[in-house]
């Protein structure tokens, strides 16, 4: 194929862009449905038996005369019969009310209830019973809580008034444990996310700060900084692995572990500890193997830094990507919470309200989850294409001292005008490889009680295979995006051309780019490692009724996405630079008619790297290479 750098443009993969629009039309339908049918506040704030959400103003429910009340100042859920609760169909059958405060002392009579209501403004009887009628109404015993009312305090997770009397607390806790254990994993994870929402947000900002500091560090990278980063990564991995093993041992030997969520925490902690230990051993081995070649990584980053210096605002590109991802993730979580609480309000014979789950919610949740993966990958693909387009424009510029004006804005305009479909197709392929891994994990959790050793090994092999396929596809996607920025061709054609040109020059460039990719990967591990460590310290203090290990996994995933989004500036710039170099060597011969675009510093670096590689080959195959002479490329002036 004839390479035509930045001279030919046409719209690419338009059908895929149309498919993406149709997919998002489905997401918008689910969003509207979730907003209309769901109420995430019920899960966050709690609600009474009459359809009122505690802590907010409510709208009336048809057939429920006590619904639609203003509960702004009544933030806690109080059960009239907290000492003898019963559970039916995953719901507590006792009547619950929204109250402004929980009784701190035991109330032994209706007079005590009346005095508590007048002094604290918290009515513990049914809403339509006046305070003055507590001792006069003959039905007060049915409309007020069972006496004596035990002292209680508010529970921070579900805003419940939990009795402090030992006998009542044991009965109350047993019912609550049964209810939580019989909830599906989806709702338990939602409860864990909501309970630690402040911690999750704080950890995401911590990952953002670490990522931004690493970007600044790589901008002025030196040999000492590389060794410091390696030392910090190893220390962090060893420390996090030790903390994970310690927490696993502590949880496993805790006699109070009764909730299913706590048992899941133990299982996840064991998996985290094993994974962290394996990663530590593998990275330590790679560092020992590549320790003598780290100087080339430093030189590579200096050249990349020189290119970034010619492109104003390129380092700010990940910030916009991060902000877009944050907005999308907030939207996604809000819709997910609404889907998790989607249900129709139905009144019972006593004027109470029950919420019944709607059919098809699980299918909508899976569709919504695919939207999370595809859209996140699409946003990251747009960033890669923007950076690659700016690097291509600066590389194929004859006057290196006068770079093209506004290369980032020009690259963004080209992306939106011509190549959005290519980004959609590349991100869709990544999504297709991720979905089987998620389905396998889902089946593994369903069949884990019936599995044998052979099935367990088969599941793990499938996980490993799909992960390897995804890693290879990400590598080729990135080069396909760069080829599209160079030649203006569609995804498949660009991928084929990229594979062809890389196959011809892989021996020269693969060993060079792997150094920088390895250092950048250590940077990502640094961000994830210390963010997860902060999460361990924060979540470990909130063990009760929380599936906090799953939110911690989400935090680690988001931390990796953030660090990848920021550090990919250097990764995409280096890979795009080497691909442009390979295209330059393929299409030009250094003559006056076809001079090279490469500058002297990059050419010298590639030549020195090739000499090192060839020297290593000659030492291993000296009898066959004694009479070979190498040639060195010279730049055209």
UniProtKB/TrEMBL annotation:
Gene Ontology cellular component list: plasma membrane
Record region (Disordered): 614-637
TM segment ranges: 15-36, 200-221, 228-249, 269-290, 311-332, 372-396, 518-539, 545-562
Top-level taxon of the source organism: Eukaryota
Presence of keyword Transmembrane helix: yes
Keywords: Membrane, Transmembrane, Transmembrane helix
Membrane topology: Multi-pass membrane protein
GO MF assignments: transmembrane transporter activity
Pfam annotation, one family: Choline_transpo
Keyword Isomerase: no
Entry's localization field: Cell membrane; Membrane
Coarse class of the protein's main subcellular location: membrane
Family, as annotated: Belongs to the CTL (choline transporter-like) family.
Biological function: Choline transporter.
Protein's name in the database: Choline transporter-like protein
Organism: Ibidorhyncha struthersii
Gene for this chain: Slc44a3
């Amino acid at each position: 194929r004839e390479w035509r750098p930045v001279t030919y443009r046409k719209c690419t993969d338009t059908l895929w862009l149309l498919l993406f629009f149709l997919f998002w039309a489905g997401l918008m339908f689910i969003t509207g449905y979730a907003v209309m049918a769901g109420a995430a506040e019920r899960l966050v704030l709690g609600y009474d038996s009459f359809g009122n959400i505690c802590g907010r103003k409510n709208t009336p429910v048809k057939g429920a005369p006590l619904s639609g009340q203003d509960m702004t100042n009544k933030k806690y859920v109080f059960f009239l019969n907290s000492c003898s609760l019963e559970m039916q169909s995953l719901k507590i059958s006792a009547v619950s009310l929204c109250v402004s405060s929980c009784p701190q002392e035991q109330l032994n009579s209706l007079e005590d209830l009346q005095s508590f209501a007048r002094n604290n403004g918290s009515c513990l009887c049914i809403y339509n019973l006046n305070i003055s009628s507590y001792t006069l109404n003959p039905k007060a015993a049915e409309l007020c809580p069972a006496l004596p009312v035990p002292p209680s305090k508010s529970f921070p997770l579900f805003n419940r008034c939990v009795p402090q009397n030992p006998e009542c607390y044991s009965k109350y806790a047993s019912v609550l444990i049964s209810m939580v254990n019989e909830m599906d994993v989806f709702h338990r994870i939602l409860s864990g996310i909501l309970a630690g929402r402040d911690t999750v947000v704080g950890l995401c900002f911590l990952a953002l700060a670490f990522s931004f500091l690493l970007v600044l560090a790589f901008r002025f990278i030196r040999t000492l900084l590389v060794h410091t980063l390696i030392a910090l990564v190893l220390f962090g991995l060893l420390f996090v692995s030790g903390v994970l093993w310690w927490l696993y041992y502590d949880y496993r030997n805790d006699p109070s572990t009764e909730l299913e969520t706590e048992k899941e925490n133990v299982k996840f902690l064991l998996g985290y500890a094993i994974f962290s230990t394996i990663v530590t051993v593998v990275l330590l081995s790679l560092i020992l193997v590549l320790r003598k070649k780290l100087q080339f990584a430093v030189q590579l980053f200096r050249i990349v830094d020189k290119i970034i210096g010619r492109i104003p605002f390129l380092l700010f590109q990940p910030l916009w990507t991060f902000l877009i991802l944050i907005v999308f993730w907030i939207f996604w979580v809000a819709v997910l919470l609404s889907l998790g609480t989607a249900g129709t309000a139905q009144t019972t014979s006593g004027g109470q309200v029950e919420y019944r789950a709607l059919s098809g919610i699980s299918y909508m949740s899976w569709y919504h989850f695919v939207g999370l993966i595809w859209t996140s990958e699409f946003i990251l693909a747009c960033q890669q294409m923007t950076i690659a387009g700016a690097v291509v424009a600066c590389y194929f510029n004859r006057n290196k001292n006068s770079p093209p004006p506004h290369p980032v804005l020009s690259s963004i305009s080209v992306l939106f005008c011509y190549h959005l479909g290519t980004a959609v197709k590349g991100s869709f392929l990544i999504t297709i490889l991720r979905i089987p891994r998620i389905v396998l994990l889902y089946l593994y959790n369903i069949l884990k009680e019936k599995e044998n050793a052979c099935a367990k090994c088969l599941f793990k092999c499938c996980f490993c295979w799909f992960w390897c396929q995804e890693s290879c596809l990400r590598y080729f996607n990135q080069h396909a995006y760069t080829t599209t920025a160079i030649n203006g061709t569609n995804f498949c054609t660009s991928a084929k051309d990229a594979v062809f040109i890389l196959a011809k020059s892989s021996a020269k460039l693969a060993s060079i780019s792997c150094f920088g990719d390895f250092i950048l990967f250590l940077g990502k591990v640094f961000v994830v490692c210390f963010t997860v460590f902060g999460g361990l310290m924060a979540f470990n203090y909130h063990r009760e009724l929380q599936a906090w290990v799953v939110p911690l996994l989400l935090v680690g995933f988001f931390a990796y996405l953030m660090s990848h989004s920021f550090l990919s500036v250097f990764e995409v710039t280096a890979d795009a630079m080497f691909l442009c170099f390979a295209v330059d060597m393929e299409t030009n011969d250094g003559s006056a008619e076809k001079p090279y675009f490469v500058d002297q510093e990059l050419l010298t670096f590639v030549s020195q790297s090739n000499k090192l590689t060839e020297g290593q080959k000659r030492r291993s195959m000296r009898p066959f290479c004694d009479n070979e002479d190498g040639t060195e490329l010279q730049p055209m002036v």
